[in-house]
Each structure stands twice: as C-alpha cells, then as structure tokens.
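Worked example 2:
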Amino acid sequence: MNRKICRRRFLGQASCAGLGFLTLKNSIINLQPLNAAAISNSSVYDNYNDYKAIVCILLAGGNDSFNMLVPTDTSRYNQYSAARSHLALPLSSLSSTQLQYNNVNINYAAHPSMTGVKDLFNSKRLSFLTNVGTLTHPNTTKAQIDLGNSPLGLFSHSDQIEQWQTGLPTERGAKGWAGRIGDLISDCNSNQNISMNISLSGSNIFQNGEETVEYAVDPYYGAVGLDGYDSNAMYLTEQIRTQAIDSLLGQTYQDIFEKTFVNVIKNAKDGFVQFDAAMQNAITFPQGAFPDSELAASLEMIARTISIRNNLGFKRQVFFVIVGGWDHHDGLLDNQQAMLGMVSDALFSFQESLKAKFGSSNQYNGVNVENNVLTMFISEFGRTLRPNLDGTDHAWGGNTMVMGGPNLIDGGKVFGAFPSMVLGNNNPLELDNSGRFIPTLSTDQYFGEVAQWFGVPSTDMALIFPNIGNFYNPLSTSHPIGFIK
C-alpha cells in the first residue's frame, strides 16, 4: 500500500531507515577493547530474560529549565524572582503545579503548564535532576575553568548537543553512547535485522556506534520501506521497479564497497518486511488517548513498538525522539507555555499507556512494562537566569527529568544541589553575573546510572563513558546519583 510521504518519512528515508544492523568497521579507531568486551559478554546476555527500554527525548536548542522547575519557598523564590526579573513566573501561577516534595522548608513547583508532570511527580513516577551538565572533573571551580579544565566548546550549540549524545566532554565525535551500548550488548536480542536503537527522528549521533546504527521509523506510519520498492505492487511500473531492485540485490559483487552497500539494502528490505508485519499485531489506542502533537505521536508509536517486543525478539531497546525549537532568545514565556505543556501532556499519556497491561495473551505475556521503560531528557545546556530582552542566552548547568514506573524510579524527588540564585561574586557556582551555573551533577553520572540499569557491566562502563571514573567508581555497589531504585 502506498503511504503518504510526510516530513518524518522523508527524514527516515534520508537516514538509516530499515538498516537494522550495519557491520562496517571504522579503520581509524581501535575497536579491540569494545569488540573483546562484546564477545565476552555475548554468552552472558543470552541468559537475560527481562525486557528493558530507554526512551531518550532531546529538547534541542537548550531548554530554559529554571522556569521548568521553580523553588517556591519564600527565600529561594525571592532570589529567583530578583534574578529572572520580568521572566519570573508569578508565585500565584505556580500553585496549580506545586510538587509534593518532602524536604522540610524546601518547596518546588513545575511550570504552570505542566500539570501532567506534576501528577507524575506526585504519584512517584517522575523525578527531577538539578544543575546537570557536561563536566571534565568533579567540584569544578571558576579558577579551574580559567585554566582550561572545562568541556570543549562551552555554550556552543554544536559542541554541547553533541557531547550530550556522545558522553565525551573533551572531544568531538560521531559515535553516541547509545550506539556504543548497542555495539556492546546487542547480542542479547535474537533479532539482528532490526537495530536495538530505534529512532523516531531520523539520523542522529546518539544511536550511532561502530557497528550499530538507528532503525528509523515514522511516528505516524511506522516502518519505512525502500523508496520505490513494493512486493505487493499493483501497477506495472511499480512491479518493474521492484523486480529491478530484486535483481540488483540478487547479484554477487566482488568489490567490497558494492558488496557492503548491497548487504545494507538487503537488511533494509528484510527489516522493513519483518517490522511492518509485526506492527499489524501491535496494540492500538483509542482516539484521544494521546494528544495531538508530534511528540505524542512518537511516544504512541514507541508504546506500540514495545507491544511487539516479543514478536521481534527484543530484550533491550533504545528509542530516540528530537523535539526542536528550545533556543528561546526571544518570546520565552509564550513559547514555554505552549511547548512545556505539550511535552507534559505527551509524557502523561505515554506513562499512562505503559501503566496498563498490554494484554493477557501470550503475545504480550501480560507484562506491565511501566517498570521496564525509563524515559529520560537531554538538552545541550541550561540558560542564563538574567533575561536578554524577552529571552535568555546559552548557559551551562540545567534541570532535567527522568520518568518510569514506581518500582523503577525513586520518584517524587529532586536529585542534586539546586544552585543558589543569588548572583554575583559570592556565588561559587555562578560564572559571570548572568546566571550561568557550573554544574554539580555530571552527565557521566546521569548517563552512567541509566546504562548501569540497562545492563552494561560495571567492568565495561569506562568503554562507554571514558570520563566516568572522575565522578564514580563503576565497581561500586551504589548508583552514581540514586534516581533508580
């Protein structure tokens, strides 16, 4: 059946749609440690009988997250209000999203549009991490930054958005930490035609490894096949084109590049057929179960994909969604009112869909997957507390969210040290009197805890995050931060 081409489908076709698993080797990088670890772990992962999925949502552009999580106790709100000036949210508007946070004399509210997030927090299915950012060393000071001990390209969109995806704060690279995890543990999945890493947003760095690339699906249409190929073609021209592609794929090639290209296309075709057939049995949701937004459509497609995990032979999956438009140098208050509300509504619908069992038949095993799916947020940096006219500038540390079932997430908490919002020379975390904060939680700690839960062996953690030893001993029996139970 011909399907309407939309923007997302074009992105999928332009990226690695249907590629599943790519076996090209990068001759520049020494792969021996990672390959050796993957081989040694392959037999271990054969014994994994559980299912786990990561859903990573990138708020591209740099979310102004100090209006997403706001202190409401009197002294700290007054500091916030003084620093934010006309961009401060009125205290009266925050009453509808007051968080039931159980620390004495410390109170928070979510943005007034985030009623769904408030409900998730108060039901212990969501927590905040505060003042998170890329770091090279713990307890970083202004003096160390002056000496150059800071991540590469601070305040730069291109560098910071890359570092949140690669987990490499001191170098530029095209391999993401989810891609490296895929290289290491993908053998736990019996299906090698479709990648462990599924993107709802086309090509990305986050899911790209040495041997792993994303399998791109469309938020509205699901699997995306080869353009021009249709095994059930009705028209003569389509039949001829399909037969021509089959003929090209059926030939034997000696040239390594031609051979590799043909293998990739074969995987694309096979992966599409398998994924599309399985999706015919995916669970469906009634109209109105998810709100009308592209993020909600992506999360609904993820929920449907999770429902066919057994059909496709998946024990581990990583999903990736990009939500753009967060570079608010202007129009911050109006933009955030709409955008944060959209995110909150989509999150609440998604978590509610996971809370219910997918079904009691053997197809879905009657498993409540709410406690097997971790949703996390990334964004390249926080933003300045001080306004720049009607918006804010690029900064460093910021707040983020993690979401999951009550047996997965230590919910209803704010992890980390919320920074003092008194700006000036007496604030050791404040860089330049504009409200740029040195992070106190590193992305290594954040990502490391997610990877630890996902099943990356502690002995291999440094292969995924080379910098993690500066913040956390991977052999420790405790979590790097503690937001996972």
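The chain is about 35% helix and 10% strand. The CA atoms of residues 71 and 446 lie 22 Å apart.
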